[in-house]
Write a structure and sequence with these properties.
The structure is a single chain. This protein has a two-stranded antiparallel sheet. Helix 2 runs antiparallel to helix 17 and helix 22 runs antiparallel to helix 23. It is mostly helical. The mean pLDDT is 83. The chain is built from 25 helices and two strands.
Length: 633
């Protein structure tokens, strides 16, 4: 189990870096989850054999346990429980993701010993250097990995760039303080650690320049300020290392001031895309929280991974005048505000308490901080700063939980339970409990695998649909729905494929009117079955996720496709109005509603809908033209 965990930590930087396609995010999450489940099974089997088991026993462990329990409760009460629970295996803040972080915390706390830390640090330095170096080569279109995904651009210009730079910032801080605390020449391992730390620092600083996140320089300066402040509080004279860090602080502040001029130069030199810092502002995020109503929403939030629906329901109208009108933000201004909206005051307070505990412990612990502990503390503070300032990705939160567990490793905060001295009844009960846990992890592995395969077939089905290969697309997305019937996205997109197939059959009927009546009747029956299935799928999608406006929009379109009978029109109006309920500031929904009212000759209601659309996007010429057309009639 320990060897497996070390291997996972080695490939962690290599494989878990953000890639621009969601497909690879799914691969990362599956690899991590399935590996942790296997490690848990191995460890539990080993515990049964040796009749001993270790468990973490610390104050932070108890706080994290409460954090997980309240997230489970928040998910249970969520209006989108399935989406909140799994996040399509591509979310860093779904309930499943939180469970994986907590499981990783437990396994690292149990399996890693104090004497393993040097090897652990060395493994991580090697892997981080390889990742930084390989990624640096891709800037010059040099691909040395045999994997196809190595030729994807590393991240898009919005969103995942945060995750990458946060990870680079962590590597920089980790390598810097490991370098300061390692004695060169004392051993071959220390020499190797020193060399790798220097290389990682150089590559990290290059990335700071190249990708131009100016605030990274400011965060690096804050890390040095915290370190020097701790020395001042405990009244320790500054050593050569602290003086070096103060000089580095001045250099970072200069770079922060000059970054608006230096970054464009690097972008031009390396011909890089300009990274856009696009996320909801802090003021907008707090306004959204102020709009939240209900005791449950304030205390426990809307549920993990639900900010996307909170955003759609409360997004400001002025965004309709930008290029990001239809952009779906899955996190708020930073991770803490995301947690405030998704997990409510309870989960936000628990997480904030952990952060404050880390900072206060570091500042007040004084000279009792050991070398490895200092490296872990400073790395933790680096991750905390990124969580306070930026949205969090899978990598950031994984690092946070790993570092928390390593603090417990240094303090040996765990308890051993020896079954060999138990009475027969207690021994049987212990074995039953351990076997039950093994069965639970086997079931979770199976469940995770089915969801992963469903996602794979869904992605392949979309490719076939884009290539107009409807039959193959229909087969693969149907398989995805069968493997994982809890995802509204699969059901909604399968209905889209069925409707496109129905349109093809309808065209076929029109070309066969003069041919055999029996053949036409067979095609008509198939057409009826396709439309009925599409309708059933969309109703299923609504039941699975009642807060997704696209489910109602597709139902609206389907009822209009079925004809303009009073029943179809009434159902279409009902569904477009539900879509407006969950995305009230989207002018396109009001335009669709106006078109429908105009079609059934209800001009006053059509004008009212268009006036609402105009309030949301006053400079849209399409809305003005539609108003003029109705008035001219």
């Amino acid at each position: 189990a320990k060897a497996f965990l070390f291997g996972l930590i080695f490939i962690f930087p290599l494989f878990l870096l953000p890639i621009s396609t969601n497909f690879w995010v799914v691969n990362k999450t599956y690899l991590l989850g399935f590996s942790l489940f296997l490690i848990s099974i191995f460890y539990l089997c080993h515990s049964i054999v040796i009749k001993k088991i270790e468990i973490p026993f610390s104050f932070i462990f108890l706080i994290l346990l409460l954090f997980i329990i309240f997230n489970f409760l928040s998910n249970y009460l969520s209006a989108s429980p399935n989406f909140s629970r799994w996040g399509l295996l591509s979310s860093s803040h779904s309930l499943f993701a939180y469970f994986i972080y907590f499981l990783l915390f437990i396994l690292v706390s149990i399996l890693i010993k104090k004497e393993d830390l040097t090897i652990l640090f060395l493994i991580f330095l090697i892997s981080s250097f390889l990742t930084l170096f390989i990624t640096f080569l891709t800037i010059f279109n040099i691909y040395i990995l045999p994997f196809d995904f190595a030729k994807f651009k590393l991240f898009n210009t919005i969103g995942t760039a945060y995750e990458f730079m946060n990870w680079v910032f962590f590597v920089f801080v980790f390598s810097l303080f490991l370098l300061l605390e390692t004695r060169f020449g004392s051993s071959k391992i220390n020499n190797l650690i020193t060399i790798l730390a220097i290389l990682n620092i150089i590559l990290s600083i290059l990335y700071f320049f190249i990708y131009g996140f100016s605030n990274i320089w400011l965060l690096a300066s804050l890390i040095i300020v915290l370190f020097v402040a701790q020395k001042y509080i405990i009244k320790t004279p500054l050593s050569r290392n602290e003086i070096f860090l103060l000089i580095l602080f001045i250099v970072f502040i200069i770079f922060y001031i000059l970054s608006p001029f230096l970054t464009p130069a690097f972008v031009n030199i390396f011909k890089l895309p300009n990274i856009i810092d696009v996320r909801p502002s802090l003021i907008t995020t707090l306004k959204i929280f102020a709009n939240e109503r209900g005791f449950k929403n304030i205390l426990l939030g809307e549920g993990p991974n639900t900010f996307i629906y909170i955003w759609l329901k409360n997004k400001p109208p002025e965004i309709n005048q930008t290029n990001f009108a239809n952009f779906r933000f899955d996190q708020a201004h930073n991770y803490l505000t995301t947690l405030l909206l998704e997990g409510g005051l309870v989960n936000f307070s628990l997480f904030l308490f952990i952060i404050l505990l880390i900072i206060l412990t570091f500042l007040l612990k004084g000279q009792t901080i050991k070398e490895n502990e200092l490296v872990i503390f400073m790395s933790l503070l680096a991750v905390v700063l990124t969580l306070i300032y930026y949205p969090a990705g899978l990598v950031n939160l994984l690092i946070f939980f790993i570092l928390l567990s390593l603090l417990g490793v240094l303090r040996e905060e765990k308890r051993e339970i020896d079954f060999s001295n138990f009475s027969l009844l207690k021994l049987i009960g212990s074995y039953v409990g351990l076997m039950s846990l093994i069965l639970i992890f086997i079931f979770l592995s199976y469940l995770l695998t089915t969801k992963y395969l469903a996602n794979i077939y869904y992605q392949k089905g979309l490719v076939d649909f884009d290539n107009n290969n409807l039959l193959s697309s229909l087969q693969k997305i149907s398989l995805a729905v069968n493997l994982d019937p809890t995802v509204d996205l699969y059901q909604r997109d399968l209905s889209t494929v069925l409707l496109k197939r129905a349109i093809e059959l309808n065209n076929l009927i029109n070309t066969q009117k003069a041919q055999q009546t029996q053949q036409v009747q067979q095609v008509q029956q198939e057409l009826f079955n396709l439309v009925s299935s599409a309708l059933q799928l969309l109703n299923n999608a609504v039941n699975l996720n009642k807060t997704e406006p696209l489910n109602y929009l597709n139902l609206y379109s389907l009822y209009l496709t079925l004809g303009t009978s009073s029943e179809n029109v009434s159902l279409a109006i009902e569904n477009i109005q539900k879509a407006i309920t969950y995305e009230k500031n989207n002018p396109s929904y009001y335009i669709n509603l106006a078109m429908l009212y105009s079609q059934i000759q209800q001009k006053n209601k059509a004008l009212e809908a268009l006036q609402n659309a105009k309030k949301l996007n006053p400079f849209d010429p399409q809305i003005d033209k539609m108003i003029q057309d109705i008035l001219s009639q």
